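Note to self: keep these together.
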Amino acid sequence: MSPRVRRILLRAFAVLIIGVVTWLFAAALVSGWDRVQEHDITIDGLWVAAAALFVLAVAASGFLWGRVLRALDPELELSAAEAVRSHLAAWVMRYIPGVGSLLYKIQWAQRHAISRTVAVVGFTYESIFLQIASIVGGAVVLVVLVGPALLADNLVVVIALAVLLAAMLLGASRPVVRPVLTFVARRKLRERAAALPLLSTPRSLLFAIEYLTPRVINGIGVAVIAVSVFGSGPRDWFIIGAAYAVAGALGILAVFVPGGLGVREGAFVGILTASGFNVVDAIVLAVAARFVSTVSDLLIAAVYGMLTAAKRRKEKAA
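Structure:
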């Protein structure tokens, strides 16, 4: 299959997914319109706070991106502000399906005398840590809060937690990461495995834990939206935040869909519904969260512009 045909098929598949999710959501909202009218769906200060938290979560990921690069190359001179600035730009570029963020970070690295290998390896590590933190971290919360209600045998919950934590350890381990990096390098850089910088397993595990920070911030953001719309309680906040983290990770994996549109919302609603939420409530929250996250992306672009302008003024002054 030629690359052009593959691109056309992936785009058609993306349109199909978005269309199906939109139709299902619309049908559920129409049939449950009485339920929708019970909620106060008004944009207020809490929505603004949620958008600010979403921006803060991306900035926190940018700070960690810089730490990953410096861990791979200890001699690298990279300020935290520049790492955050590059990550904000890459975040906006992710709307180009599949390769937008990666290509931007490679080009950014070359402009700053950073090895392409370090940039690609750092991007791959960043993606791995993000997925581990999102899926494992979110799943642990869901198992603890929802598991006992769904499964009467607490031993099953304990086993599930053990499996999730083991998956986190294995996912961050050097033997597991090495073949992933080798595969990516062969496709993007044609580098031999011996030439690739690798983090130790303990350091990778620590990074995976650190990447929980932006996920927690995101979870607080979507919980704030839920408070505005539903006035939900503390237990629901944890479930909503965890579900949003897992759904966000699944949306990122769907690289053929810009920004995970449709995939993230479908997974979010599915997890919340399985956790005992009313399906209409879950859909309303998913739509509201997508709206706020889109606004936050515009804010991220604005912050990137301000940081870039400040950097240029500093360079001119020097």
